[in-house]
What we know:
Strand content: 15-25%
Helix content: 25-40%
Structural class: alpha/beta
CATH architecture: 3-Layer(aba) Sandwich
Number of helices: 7
CATH topology: Rossmann fold
Mean pLDDT: 92
Low-confidence stretches: 184-190
Number of domains: 1
Number of strands: 6
Amino acid sequence: MNAGTARVYFVFAHPHRTRSRANAQVLARVRDLPSVTTVDLYEAYPRFHLDVSREQAALAAHEVICLQHPIYWYSMPPLLKLWVDEVFALGFAYGPGGTALAGKRLQLSLTTGGGPDAYSAEGYHGRPLEDFLLPAVQTARLCKMTYLEPMVLHGAGKATDAEIEAHAERVRDRLLNLTNPLYRGEAVGG
């Protein structure tokens, strides 16, 4: 790796990866990128017993944390929520002495079951998707991270193979840009 190249810790969280078309395709497209380290939480921790020290060391060694997951009940899958709860600990990620994540960037890569119209004031969910992402925005702020514009594939279950491939390629390109020493990403919301 070249000096100045940012490293990405790509945290994949899908409880049913073998049934996932979109999330699994994104993982396949980024898994072999030179500056990207991937972890499949459900594969690494099938019994939900996290190795917190290992995960904290991985976060400390990377400049960008990318969370790849489907939206589950307006949030994240349960193992990812447990991971955030335990790994982003007081004294590590925030609070007194908790500066390990300060200055790092948080990138979300998400899939939804509903289309973009479902996530609006008039839509099925009655709110824009951004409203459901406020916990991630606040987590980044609390940890003094930069929250980057999320990448979203709406209606993943009904998406065509071409739409899924295009989304996976967008995620791959974004991660390549984030690892480029010349990248100057724009922060949003935090």
